Amino acid sequence: MFRTISTSLFIILVLSPGPAQAQLDGSGTVLLRPSGITVSPESLDSSRYKVRAPESKLEDDDDLDERERPGPVVPPPVPAPKPVAKKSSSPQSQPQPQPQPPPQPPAPSPATAEDERPTVSSQFRDLILGGRADEIEEVRKSIHPEDPRKNVLSITLAPAYYYNGSESGYSYRRFHSHGPGFGLGMNLWATPFFGIQSRFFSTVTASLRSGGTNMVPTEIQAFEAGIRFRKHFGYSRKAAQLSWGLDYHDSMNKISREATTVVGRKSSGISLAVEGLVPSSPIYAHSFELGIRPRLRHSDLSTGVDVVSGTNNETNAISFSVGGEWTLDRRNQVFWKGQLSVERNLFGGQANTADPSNGQSPNGVSVTNSLTIFLFLACAGDPKDTSYSYIA
Known about the structure:
The protein is mainly β. It has a domain at 120-390: Beta Barrel (Lipocalin). It is 14% helix and 43% strand. It has helices at residues 2-15, 26-32, 41-44, 61-68, 120-129, 133-142; strands at residues 153-168, 175-191, 194-203, 206-210, 214-232, 241-255, 264-279, 284-301, 312-329, 332-348, 366-375, 379-380, 386-390. It is elongated and about 195 Å long.
């Protein structure tokens, strides 16, 4: 009977309704689907089913808990806190901020020879001579070998003919003369840009009229010397050049003491000069020169009479010349030149001697003196860098 009851309870437990789970293997799904229809992998696992993990992968909860249970935790080392100075609550004990010094500029590197500032003497040398020695030598090499500018020294000797006329309302200062003369010149170029120039002119056996028909000897001399600066507009034989400078000018007209109706003159002072040479071909060039003498010292030169034209005077003068130059080679040139100089004298006060023409001593005597000089052919020759020019 006990066996019968046990069997009945087992049947009841098996047949009793309860939650049931259906599991469908993927192979079963494949067997149940109609033939010829392709099923995507997503359709094999419907949301109505849950895939069981394989038995081999299941683990006991106790084993999982033991595996996931963390071991003893070792805390990381904590750095020791740095001691912090406690700020005093008293405002007087707080340190005042110190002013920061301005940043110092970096020390300059030692100046090289190129960075050094040129001295006053070197600047003056460059201004006067035209540059450093290497620059000057480079310019000399650039000048054409047959160009006269390559010469260091040039000396000129020129025969000339002159005419001198003195016009005034005072008869003692009214006369004229003409005759042959000669001119001398010298140019010394320290560099192609700077040099020294001097000139001299003198009459030869000249005379003028005094006292009606009497002719008395007279001599006219003019001297100039000064510095010259030269500007080159190129270094070919057809390149123009311009020079300018400052001269000391001295001129006089001596008249023999035998003269009783005329007196001589003398003037001296500073002259500003500008000269130019403009070549039209490699062998010919046009030349010009302008001289201005803004203020000269002037006086009368006694003859047979001692005449003073006034107590004081204002004197100025101007000169202008044109000409041409043929260059045969560097040391031989032929040239011509015409020069006109005009000097104006204005006296103040009364003359000390009465005019023989009217018997009166004039006030405010004025005199205009002009000197015209014609220079002719010139030739020069020297085997070295010195050039001598002669006019014949």
